[in-house]
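Subject: sequence -> structure tokens, single chain

Hey, anyone have a minute? Need the predicted structure for the following. Not urgent.
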Amino acid sequence: MLLLLLLLLLLLAAVARCSAVEFAACPDKPATPDFDAYAFQGKWYLVKAHDFPQAQGQPGRLSCIQQVFTANEHGDMSYKIADYDKRTQEAYRWAPATALERENASSDDGKFVIPYPREEDIPVSPLKHYILSTDYINYAIIWGCFTNERANVTLESYFVSSRTRNLSNTEEVDRTIPPEVELHDIDQTDCP
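Reply:
Had a minute. Here:
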């Protein structure tokens, strides 16, 4: 959980510094229709990201990022994320599993949220975690969004995952992610 929170804080700091957009709430985006959580579950490698620490002059940091998704009987999921720091050659550090709940329990699309407890002094929305597009066997395009109501700032980011350490076909990525969004490669070479 600490690693997940650290990644989230790093992501939020990078996005706030580079591309904060003011909204009253996260915008709505279309997600994968008829999303099959069972077909989606398993290991994915994060191969590209928007506003991620590698883009902030920290090569080798948070390399070899893996995600493991697990579906449950209700169609909700959980996921774990791990990274390997090539600079220190530290073993994979796995964050505890994080729940992904359907944004709308009666919908079968790829819209999920990570529910955070709302505290009076920290007015934040649940983190939206949408699977915008996937073919289940090669690629997944994920969009995340988080709103800080006190600051009236909405932070968005895009992630591209692959079942292999490199994504050979990027046509769907190019069609799905807006052209103004700059994606950065996540180093997946020479991973243990």
